[in-house]
Amino acid sequence: MMEDLHGHPRLGIRVMLAARLRRLPDSERVEPPRRLRSNFIDGIEELRVRI
């Protein structure tokens, strides 16, 4: 499936996170995500969760 998402990194990350949440439904976010912002990247750098 990942080969279908080539060129769409945000969509790929969403799909992977959704799959992980289905496998670990009791996980919860511990704190807000730390974002990485630069001229090239605007995304989540760290996302702490409790399993």
Walk me through the structure:
The protein is an alpha+beta fold and 51 residues long. It has one domain (2-50). Helix content is 29%, strand content 25%. It has one helix and four strands. Strands 1-4 form a two-stranded antiparallel sheet. Strands 2-3 form a two-stranded antiparallel sheet. The longest helix has 15 residues, at 9-23.
Q: Which labels suit this protein?
A:
flat, two-stranded antiparallel sheet, 25% strand, alpha+beta, 51 residues
Quick rundown:
With 51 residues, the protein is an alpha+beta fold. It has one helix and four strands.
Write the layout of secondary structure elements.
Blueprint: H1 9-23, E1 28-29, E2 34-37, E3 42-46, E4 49-50
Antiparallel strand pairs: 1-4, 2-3
**Major sheet summary line:** 2 strands, antiparallel
Distance between the termini: 26 Å
The best one-word shape is: flat
How many strands appear in the DSSP assignment?
4
Q: Helical content, roughly?
A: 25-40%
What value does the Rg take, in angstroms? Answer: 13 Å
Low-pLDDT residue spans: none
The proportion of residues in beta strands is 25-35%
The structural domain count equals 1
Protein structure class: alpha+beta
Q: What is the overall pLDDT average?
A: 79
**Main β-sheet, spatial strand arrangement:** 1-4
